[in-house]
From TrEMBL:
The lineage of its organism: Bacteria, Bacillati, Bacillota, Bacilli, Bacillales. The keyword Membrane applies. Keywords: Membrane, Transmembrane, Transmembrane helix. This is Membrane protein YczE. InterPro entries: YczE/YyaS-like (IPR038750).
């Protein structure tokens, strides 16, 4: 049963994460740095944002292996593929015709997206299954340099922000909010999700 809950948390986390990413992109406030990079690459070179999630993620797998001095975690490609598919599903199918009327609607969608991202990451990392290379970068920085999750996440986001600017991604005030807010949100939510996971796994023993 432990595996059952781990898979459930993994999939639910990726659904929430991809939903949150898609909402921030559609809000028009500016998406997260990595997502702005993927959208910028999509608009500049071609392919869908979800495809760039996979391609950029493969490069990050190699970077994470260098930081941790480990073999590349190619198992994370499964996480990449699922995340890319979910993002394209939300963006190209569910929200393709979404039109937001007014700044308050956009702000509400954006804030919902930020919460979805924080909840999604905090949920799926509890499954101890292969992390998205973006989140594995957070963990790699955390383990390599001893920073907490909040600082590690922020370092990764600032790196992506620079690249997103270079490739002309949709950067706005929302990008800065995501850059500095998601890390603390993960730090806040993670203990609660971990406690829920522990209670569920203990209950079935």
């Amino acid at each position: 049963m432990n595996w059952f809950y781990r898979i459930v948390f993994f999939l639910l986390g990726l659904v929430f994460l991809s939903l949150g990413i898609s909402l921030t992109i559609k809000s028009g406030f500016g998406s997260g740095a990595w997502d702005a990079l993927n959208v910028g690459l999509s608009e500049t070179i071609g392919f869908t944002p979800g495809t760039w999630v996979v391609l950029v993620g493969i490069l990050l797998i190699l970077l994470n292996a260098f930081l941790l001095k480990n073999r590349p975690d190619f198992g994370a490609i499964i996480t990449l593929l699922l995340t890319g598919v979910f993002i394209d599903f939300w963006l190209l199918q569910i929200f393709a015709e979404l039109e937001l009327a007014g700044v308050f609607a956009s702000a509400g969608v954006f804030l919902g997206g930020v919460l979805g991202m924080g909840l999604g990451i905090a949920t799926y990392i509890q499954a101890k299954l292969p992390l998205s290379p973006i989140d594995n970068l957070m963990m790699a920085i955390h383990k390599r340099f001893g920073f907490n999750l909040m600082i590690s996440k922020t370092i990764g986001e600032l790196t992506a922000l620079t690249l997103a600017f270079i490739f002309g991604g949709p950067i706005g005030i929302g990008t800065l909010i995501v850059t500095f807010a998601v890390g603390p949100l993960i730090q806040f939510i993670s203990p609660h999700i971990e406690g829920l996971m522990n209670r569920l796994t203990v209950a079935v023993r």
